[in-house]
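Assemble and predict.
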Amino acid sequence: MVDGWTTVVQMASLALAVWCGISAFRNRPMLVPHLIGIAVLEVLLLVQLVLSIVLLVEGPRPPDTVTFVSYLVTLVLVPPACAVWGLMERSKWGPAVIAFACLVIPVLMVRLEQLWNASVV
Amino acid sequence: MSETEKNSRAGGPGRLLVAVYALFAVAATGRSTVQILTRFEEAPLAYALSALAAVVYIVATVGLARAGRTSYRVAVACCSLELVGVVAVGLFTLLVPQAFPDDTVWSLFGKGYGFVPLVLPVLGLLWLRRSHPRAARSTESAGSPAERG
């Protein structure tokens, strides 16, 4: 795994979580800047996906490749899902959902690293 | 406007709850699918329970997200089943750990998932109680309940 990149994604995700958390507390719905934030996070996650696929093709692979790939795919699906949620719910609960999702992403990244390091180390 | 009123159970804080449920539905489904497809014989009981938990989460998500009385009952049933499941499996894994060679979502009261599986059905039931359809009967009775059934 590209360790530095994982940290970048985690930090970006946490920053977005804090921002959306503040928006939720201030009773704001999801707005265009939030959507841009989600888009940036999605790009970061797609880079992570491509990097991981390259590493998987080159080998060595983690012992539980199936689980590893399913985590990768799930991660990429989270930002679009929470964007849809934010569009459906035009209240402070929209950003609240995004904040929750952005707290889950770093946890998923930790699991991803654990799955990867099970073999490489 | 009447549309948002009718869906009030899924709106507001309910939306966050549905999102958390949806995540757990995905997590449990993914986990149990991988477990059952790749190594079912290692821990059949644990993996079968994983699959059951996944189904319960999926049905609960749909029940919470949809308006109407049937969905309400389905959601209550699923949240209750979930609470019973997480407590029963939690106790079981604590007392008879050798029966579960591998973890499920509900092992040790959902410890692997930050105890969220234990808290989630309680929050779900509280939310369902607060948004009971009887409280919104004035908006509900406008549409025929029979066509919903």
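The longest helix of chain A spans residues 93-120.
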